[in-house]
Here is the input.
Amino acid sequence: MAAPTKTTRMDASDRRELVLAAATRAFARSGYAGTTTDAVAREAEVSQPYVVRMFGTKIELFTLVFQRSIDGIMEAFDAVLAGNHPSDDVWAELGAAYTELVADRDLLLVMMHGFTAGRTPEIGAQSRAGMAAIYAQIVDGTGCTPDDARQFIAHGMLLNCLLAMQAPEFAEKGSPLGELADCAFGPGLALLKARDSRNQD
Here is the structure.
């Protein structure tokens, strides 16, 4: 007679991560306004009261997921800026770290939805605080001018828009969109296309 299979139970932190990952996917698809706690529950394969009991209201859940995307950017930049032997071209290293990070489309789209939901007071305040923190991190970490920081952030927002519209997947070589994507992403474009191709297999 076969031994009974042992069921592994998830601990509370694993269950929390599972729901947060599901919430990230759901909010990435539909944004703050278009996503309900019920949609998050279905994505996580748990009950809606369970989601509410764990995270509270939809706004509390969204701001938590949105903050994780902002924190992810700042942690990636910290890893570059805290290097013992900084590169002569810290901008290239920061750009490469950002491109690698936002290749995660769910993280990218949650961030974009957060920035565009600024009329919701809690999200607007969080967006402004997050952008200010990233700006201060870049200025303090590189010693650059405000204009240098602005140009770097503006370039990052261009990458966000191109990724959100799936430009790397649809940009044909030699086309105007292909030229813009190639100019914006540089060597990172080939890596993004290769990753998208692997994800579709």
About this structure: The first helix runs from residue 12 to 30. Residues 63-164 form one domain. The mean pLDDT is 88. The chain has eleven helices and no strands.
